[in-house]
TrEMBL record:
Coiled coil: none annotated. FAD binds at residues 211, 236-237, 250-254, 267-274, 288. Belongs to the ETF alpha-subunit/FixB family. GO terms for molecular function: electron transfer activity; flavin adenine dinucleotide binding. Residues 5-194 form the Electron transfer flavoprotein alpha/beta-subunit N-terminal domain. Keywords: FAD, Flavoprotein. Binds 1 FAD per dimer. This is Electron transfer flavoprotein large subunit. Gene3D superfamilies: HUPs, TPP-binding domain. Its cofactor is FAD.
Length: 323
């Protein structure tokens, strides 16, 4: 049965995040030929509606309010619930991001919907669709079927391919007025601690360093390689604990879960807690001077050697490819 699906468009610094386009592609499958409606919340988001449509949404509904300039779960839930009341959707798709993980349970409970979170693949379409999601820190996958009522899923970034951008697509961008009030949190300032540039959870390439990098300066060659590959830098908790980098870079069970096309881990032993965050990467390259290091068990390509010799060689080779 075809469905009307709402998709939350997530923005950062006034730009739509890639996961929003992946969520639209997931919504297309879920809708089975029904209508995909993008939802944008913020203080000035109207102009982003066209891009959601170019990536596959049929139309877009915005809620603009100065109190939605920064994300708060109270503000966004008031805005999103107002759109739900107007649209009466049969399914909802969010990105499985920090925002999506915070907001989706709140909305799901308000709408008494079951929530299938962290979906990495959708098999089939229609009412028979199976939603595949990792369990036990990525060691196994389960297939979940939606039975009845409002369907609500969150999709893990970098797993469901976005549709090709089609600049000839057009559709309505309308707005809903909401009196956003009674916010229990007010964001007075945002202090960015992570490095500027590519966001690790959406990056196609992540170059991660561990205790083996030995110092904050030891991260410099890794950063250079990441920049050359258009990727992001990441780290093990060993490196964060040693104060070589900020905790916002930590990958793993108590850090970020990433699934880039290419993960390069240097000077990382491969503790189970680290692997919980990266073992589903599409291609894993490990550099370690210990041939017995656990990380080699999940690596597609293992390089036994000193990272301070191997990474500069990789940088040189990548530079040659770019000439
Ligand atoms: P180490 O285990 O010390 O490994 C360093 C590696 O570098 C070694 O294998 C060594 O051979 C290699 N090396 C050294 N010098 C070089 C060189 N010059 N060239 C090449 N290789 C070199 N960890 C996480 O990463 N993420 C988490 O989310 C996380 N959550 C945790 C949660 C809990 C509850 C607990 C208890 C632990 C958690 N940990 C987590 C910590 C985890 O158990 C490990 O301690 C940590 O991952 C080790 O980091 P590491 O691999 O950088 O360091």
């Amino acid at each position: 049965m075809s469905k009307k699906v709402l998709v939350l468009g997530e923005t950062r610094d006034g730009v739509l995040r890639n996961v929003s386009f992946e969520a639209i592609a997931a919504a297309k499958k879920v809708s089975a030929g029904g209508e995909v409606v993008g939802v944008l919340l913020g203080d000035s988001v109207q102009s982003l509606g066209a891009e959601m449509i170019q990536y596959g949404a049929d139309r877009v509904v915005t809620v603009e309010h100065e109190k939605l300039k920064q994300y708060t779960s109270d503000g966004y839930s008031q805005g999103f619930m107002a759109v739900c009341e107007q649209e009466n959707p049969e399914a909802i798709v969010f990105g499985h991001t920090a925002l999506g993980k915070d907001l989706s349970p709140k909305i799901a409970s308000k709408l008494a919907a079951g929530l299938i979170s962290d979906v990495t693949e959708i098999e089939g379409e229609d009412d028979d669709a199976l939603f595949i999601r990792p369990i036990y820190s990525g060691k196994a996958f389960e297939k979940v079927k939606h039975k009845e009522g409002l369907l609500f899923i969150t999709v893990r970034p970098n797993n469901i391919a976005a549709l090709e951008k089609d600049e000839s697509r057009s559709g309505d961008v309308t707005s809903v007025d909401v009196d956003v009030k009674d916010l229990r949190t007010i964001i007075s300032e945002v202090v960015r601690k992570a490095t500027e540039g590519v966001d690790m959870s959406e990056a196609k390439v992540v170059v991660a360093g561990g205790r083996g990098v030995r110092s904050a300066d030891g991260f410099k060659p890794l950063q250079e390689l990441a920049d050359l590959l258009g990727g992001a830098i990441g780290a093990s908790r060993g490196a964060c604990d040693a104060d070589y980098c900020d905790y916002s870079l930590q990958i793993g069970q108590t850090g970020k879960v990433i699934t880039p096309d290419l993960y390069i881990g240097a000077g990382i032993s491969g503790a189970i807690q680290h692997m919980a965050g990266m073992s589903n990467s599409k291609v894993i390259v490990a550099i370690n001077k210990d041939p017995e290091a656990e990380i080699f068990k999940v690596a597609d390509y293992g390089i036994v050697g000193d990272l301070f010799e191997v990474i500069p060689m990789m940088i040189e080779e990548v530079k040659k490819l770019k000439v």
